[in-house]
Every structure is written in C-alpha cells, then in structure tokens.
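To: structure subgroup
Subject: Chain for Friday's discussion

All,

I'm putting the inputs and outputs inline so they're searchable in the archive.
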Amino acid sequence: MRSRFSGGAWIMAALCLVLGTALAQSAGNEAPRLTLSYGQFGLVYQMFSITIATMGAGFLFFVLAQQNLAPRYRPAMVVSAIVVAVACYHYFRIFNSWNESYRLVGEVYQATGVPFNDAYRYADWILTVPLLLVEAVAVLALASNIASGMIWRLALAAFVMIATGYPGEISSDTGTRLLWGTISTIPFIYIVYTLFVELGRSLERQPARVQVLTRNLRLLLFASWGFYPIAYLLPLLLGGGLNASGIVAVQVGYSLADILAKVGFGVLIYFIALEKTAHDRATADPALGTPALGTD
C-alpha cells in the first residue's frame, strides 16, 4: 500500500510540474505573429480535419469491435476508445484555435492577434500518453505486480517528458528549444526502450500469429513515437526558429504521429486481442477449432 501511495505522490508531483511549467511559459511567451501562404494554412487546416475524422472513426471502431473479443480483452478496446475520444476533442479545440489565429488578407493568411494555443496538444498528451502506456503494458501479459510497477514508472517518465518538452516547444530561441528537447528526450528514450525490449521478451509467451502482430506492434511503436522528436526538431531544420515553415511542419508532423500512435496502435492491439480470443477458444475446446470472430 505504501508503494502505491508513493507512486501516486510522484504522479501528482509530476502533474503539478506540468501545469506549473505550462502556465508559467504560456504567460511569458507570445506566439509569433506569422504570415502564412494560402497553401501553408490550408495544409494544416486539412491535416487537422483528417485527424479529427480519423480519431472519430477510431472511436466508433473500438466501441463496436469489443463484441468480437473475449471479455478479458475488451478493456483494451475501452482504453483505445477513450484515447481517441480525448484526442478528437482536443483536435477540435486545436482546429478552432488555428482558425481564430489567422485570417485571409488578399492572397495570404495573416495573424489576427489571437495566439494559436498549442497547449491543447500537450493537455491531450498528458491524458492520452499514460493510457497508451497502459495498453502497451497490457499486451505484455506480465504478472499484475510487475505490470503495476512498470505502469507507474512509465507514467512518471511520460509526465516528465511532456513537462520538459513544452517550454522548448513554445520557445522561438534555438538554444532553448534544443536544451529542453534534450532533457525531454531522456525519459522519452527510457519509455521507448522499455516497451520495445519488454514487447520483444513477451514474444515467447504468445501464440505464433500473435508473435507476428507483436513484432509489427514494436515496429509501429518505434516508428510513431520516434516521429515525435523529429517533428519537434523540424523548426530548427527549416530555418532555425518558429517561422511559417516550421510551424506548418510541426503541426502536420505531430498530427501524423498522433494518428499512428493512437488509432494505428489501437487497431493493432485489437487484432492481437482478436487472435488471442481465437487461440483461447481453440485451446479451451480443440475439437471445435473455433476461428477468430469476424474472420473466415
């Protein structure tokens, strides 16, 4: 009980750090007033629209797909549905903020003076990243005491990662962005390494077809999570600051990464659960040879 209380205290401390850092940095930094071309504004506009639609479709899929799974695997779909529902809501807020921040003047979009609020994205990550970690750990099929400890450690690392990444995200100074980005990368590497290694170790405990899906899950984890730091660095690679090209690249990059990390990850979790459902039923009554539900 004491260890659980201690873990909860660390999580609360990390949340306070996140909120304090976000408020302090938001109050002291004004978003750059940029001029975007028609194509630049439209690209981000359409990317946000696609992301909202994808998250909404993912929510419907995860809710309806639960009936194809054994009861023990349905909570994973509940978590997936919550993740994309939260993301869909926040992308609506991001989408509205983007439209309020720029207006068409002639052939270009100019800043209206209403700062684009990218904090919605970090608020989304604070809620959804720990849930994604719960999903990932659930796939490992670890003993409950081991899984619980791993979730606490990964959740704490996730909060620290998000808290330390935000000051660099909103800074127009190259040095500041690199400093906070480097600090944020430390817990990021810990999370990705832990999940990648543990997913590999879990392969021997899985049925043959589940092993293939789990390997694909590892690759998706590496590709989707690995794209976040690349998107973070794009402003530096495209001009050294929060210029128009950098802002557009960051928004498009993060949106693509979110689609892969939330919808794509959840879909793979579903197929793993589907295969495990079929395996459990076949094992329970081998004479029936029950196939996976929804398949031929």
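Points worth raising on Friday:
The radius of gyration is 21 Å.
Residues 1-9, 20-31, 285-296 have pLDDT under 50 and may be disordered.

D.
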